[in-house]
Amino acid sequence: MTTPHSQRAGIALVVAAAVAWSTAPFFTRLLPFDSWTILFWRGLFGGGLIAAILVLTQGRAGLRDLTGMGRNGWLVASLSTLGMVTFIPALQLTSVSNVAIIIATGPFVAAAFAWIWLREAARWQTMLASLVALCGVAVIVGNISASSDIIGIALACLMTVAIAAMTVTVRRHKNTPMVAAAALSNLLGSVVSIPFAHGIASVTGYVLVILAMFGFFQVALGLTLFVLGSRLLPSGQATLIATLETPLMPFWVWLAFQEVPSTRALVGGALVMGAVVADIVGDTRAQRQLG
């Protein structure tokens, strides 16, 4: 049973994961390479860091988790890898607006999977907050083009389903070494990228540092925090809180490149932030009443 303490810890972990994930546009803007080259180096650095931390903090137990991954761990790693390698190609094949709108349906998909698999009924407040957050993302991205490429839309749908399924799997199999699975998913992403990458060997020292930071902070930290936090929260709520990533993305770009967010971004971001905060406050009060 989820306790108020574990609930608060889960919320804090997923919020921190969303902050880390939201830096993706910042790093991508700095890297003049094809998406598969970026995926290769990002996964290599991210997976390597997660594996190193696991071994340093848990010693032989961590090493056993990495080398003796069970079926559930491989399932989580595979779903996470699928989500990672479909994201950037989707952005290249269709508009960012389409991809963002599809990804914003993640809480609904996760809640549906959780109901089917775990019989976990979502709070009506969470579903209402998800609708508000979806409206906020729609305001941010807007201007959907009817001529968008069907392959890009299909990849975005596949990513959303994969991440939602991963979230529910993490919650279902809490005793599986999920941090090790996160390390494995990044390394698998690098392996999958090799046949398609064109600039793996052409990176300079400066660019290698940026790629390392991309992998260490945005990937390793973000994925590890989300995996740990989603074990402590209902699947729909975990994915809802993770939508904080969307309104935070323009903030980092503004901070680094002085690009002022549009009125549409500010209004939509306020809706997403408000929905997440309202759901967190409401759920915390409910937990206190039950306790």
Describe the structure.
With about 290 residues, the protein is an all-alpha fold. Helix content is about 80%, strand content about 0%. It contains 14 helices and no strands. The protein has helices spanning about 5-20, 25-30, 35-60, 60-65, 70-95, 95-105, 105-120, 125-140, 150-170, 180-195, 205-230, 235-240, 245-255, 265-290. Helix 1 (about 5-20) runs antiparallel to helix 11 (about 205-230), helix 3 (about 35-60) packs antiparallel against helix 10 (about 180-195) and helix 3 (about 35-60) crosses helix 11. It is globular and about 55 Å long. It starts with a helix and ends with a helix. The mean pLDDT is about 80.
Helix content: over 70%
Give the topology string: H per helix, E per strand.
HHHHHHHHHHHHHH
**How many DSSP H or I helices?**
14
In whole angstroms, the N-to-C terminal distance is 11 Å
Structural class: mainly alpha
Mean pLDDT: 80
Tally of strands: 0
